[in-house]
Recover the amino acids of this structure.
């Protein structure tokens, strides 16, 4: 097919977006994929007016509206991020929803009430089921039964454990800790400049929603924990996807992970990894895979780095927790 194009949403009207999408359709485009949280750079969040305008433009242009919830399901304070309270009044009805890691299975949710799929005229469950079977026979495969059972188990645990509320609580507490650390470090902007008595705004050091966090790399690195890499090249942000365990809702537990109190726990983890012939998988500074072979990884902090010169320097110069 044709190469994908990126839509700029800032200061765009529905009419402007519709005109651009109509041209795209004429050139072979069949749909628009939306990320509620942009999975690159600083994790910018689509605003309700932007999502509303894009949804209306898709309907007017006759294009499929698909929302990518691969990473945002559950951990963004709602079953799917587009269902959050700030979008509730928009009545957004995507045609497709992509889900993945958060639910333990990769798949596509189909909404026959979506603006595009309504054109198929499928109004009852029997015809909807037959349409899904026909689709699977042509272009995809059904989820294998064992995987489906595991995924349903995840959903049951999420409901029973109220993981939605956990994602809000854990995310909120982590964001408070990050901002406090940033202000302590007096980081005034995204540049390398450090200024005394600077007032740090949350948007300078944090992005994403709730427990899907984007943390400025200089702040994230100071916590000496493994994050996830940012798909954007040379990005100054690292992604944090904390476990939604009940214990993580306790602020003291979270702070102990980042403080000298967590040194014994980290040392025990390092010892266990060494006995099993393992080492940290991800670079604590940039989040890429830890493939460093030049410098021994830090057993005290249980951290390692990739092979970039900058990250190697950070491993050598870091101050251990103990």
């Amino acid at each position: 097919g044709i190469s994908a194009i990126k839509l700029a949403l800032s200061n765009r009207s529905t009419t402007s977006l519709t005109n651009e999408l109509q041209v795209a359709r004429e050139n072979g485009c069949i749909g628009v994929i939306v990320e509620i949280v942009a999975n690159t750079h600083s994790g910018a969040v689509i605003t309700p007016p932007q999502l509303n305008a894009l949804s209306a433009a898709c309907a007017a242009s006759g294009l499929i509206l698909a929302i990518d919830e691969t990473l945002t399901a559950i951990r963004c304070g709602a079953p799917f991020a587009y269902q959050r309270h700030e979008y509730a009044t928009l009545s957004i009805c995507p045609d497709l929803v992509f889900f993945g890691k958060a639910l333990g299975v990769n798949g596509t949710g189909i909404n026959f009430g979506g603006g595009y799929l309504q054109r198929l005229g499928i109004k009852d469950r029997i015809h909807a089921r037959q349409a899904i079977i026909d689709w699977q026979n042509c272009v995809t495969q059904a989820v294998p039964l064992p995987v489906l059972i595991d995924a349903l188990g995840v959903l049951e645990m999420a409901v029973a454990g109220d993981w939605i509320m956990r994602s809000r609580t854990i995310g909120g507490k982590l964001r408070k800790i990050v901002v406090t650390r940033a202000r302590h470090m007096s980081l005034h902007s995204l540049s390398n400049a450090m200024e005394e008595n600077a007032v740090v705004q949350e948007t300078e050091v944090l992005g994403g929603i709730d427990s899907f966090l984007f943390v400025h790399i200089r702040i994230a690195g100071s916590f000496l924990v493994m994050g996830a890499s940012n798909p954007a090249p040379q990005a100054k942000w690292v992604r944090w996807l904390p476990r939604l365990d009940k214990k993580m809702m306790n602020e003291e537990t979270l702070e102990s992970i980042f403080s000298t109190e967590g040194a014994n726990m980290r040392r025990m983890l390092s010892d266990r990894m060494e006995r099993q012939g393992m080492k940290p998988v991800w670079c604590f500074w940039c989040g890429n895979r830890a493939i460093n072979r030049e410098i021994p990884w830090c057993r005290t902090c249980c951290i390692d780095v990739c092979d970039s010169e900058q990250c190697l320097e950070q491993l050598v110069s870091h101050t251990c927790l103990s």
User: Anything to note?
Assistant: Residues 187-194 have pLDDT under 50 and may be disordered. The chain is about 40% helix and 10% strand. The longest helix spans residues 163-185. The two ends are 55 Å apart (CA to CA).
